[in-house]
Amino acid sequence: MQAIEQKQVAQQMAIRQTYMVEKAKQEKLAEVIIAEGETEAGRLIAEAYKDGNEFLQLRRIEAAREIARYLARSRNVVYLPSNGNVLMSLPSN
Length: 93
Hints:
Blueprint: H1 2-51, H2 54-73
């Protein structure tokens, strides 16, 4: 009876080891794919910078949009007009 249990435990351990090896292979493959994607993205960004500064302008717009979203959610932000004195632009009654 004990030999049967030992055989079952050995089979389970072998299956577990096979699973661990396959999981490690998949993780390594995922890392390679991520690295290849980052390399390609870097190449495309460098190419975009060579062609002109439109890409840089797009990045600035995206950054400004993200900052605006952050500030819009903040309760401690007050928007003031940029054309001069705030009190001078109030309508007089």
